[in-house]
Design brief:
Blueprint (H helix, E strand, L loop, with lengths): L5 E7 L3 H8 L5 H4 L3 E8 L3 E6 L4 E10 L3 E7 L5 E10 L4 E8 L11 H30 L16
Antiparallel strand pairs: 1-7, 2-3, 3-4, 4-5, 5-6, 6-7
């Protein structure tokens, strides 16, 4: 892990319990994640597998599980480098805020000197678009109770 972080958040007109029920359910990503082809539980609350639309397969290993508040996980290829991800639910006067933060792994393919530029110009914008689409999908699902369509908020070069 490195010191870079990319976050996105959304305000939802739903109570935190309802939001938690969705994001913590088995195969949850199949409901609201616009780039998810399949989300298989390996060990509930501990590990699952996320297959993206383009066939890329990542494993999510949960390191903290805080009912109605969020969870923490690491994600990546089974034997590859991993990124840390935080999902946080914050109670508001009306509804709640959901925030996803990603601490991307450090790629060894990019020379050390160019890494800050690479993060700023490529990783941050792409990750932010990705996170915004996931959060829009969550809002759409909560508002309509209809599963999000594939690429519903636009294609993503890394995952579509």
């Amino acid at each position: 892990m490195n010191g870079f972080k990319v976050s996105s958040k959304i305000i939802l007109n739903h109570n935190p319990d309802e939001v938690w029920e969705i994001i913590s359910s088995k195969n949850a990503l199949e409901l609201f994640h616009p780039y998810c082809l399949k989300n298989d539980v390996i060990d509930y609350k501990k590990k699952d597998k996320l297959v993206y639309l383009n066939g890329l397969t990542y494993f999510r290993e949960f390191s903290a599980w805080k009912p109605n508040n969020g969870f923490e996980l690491i994600i990546g290829k089974e034997t590859g480098k991993k990124s840390k991800v935080l999902w946080e639910i914050k109670i508001l006067d009306r509804g709640c805020e959901v925030k996803i933060s990603v601490f991307p792994y450090r790629s060894s393919k990019i020379p050390k000197y160019f890494y800050p530029i690479f993060i700023f110009l490529i990783v941050k914008p792409k990750l932010r678009k990705y996170l915004q689409s996931v959060l829009k999908g969550l809002k759409f699902y909560l508002d309509t109770n209809i599963n999000v369509k594939k690429n519903q908020f636009g294609k993503h070069s890394w995952f579509s």
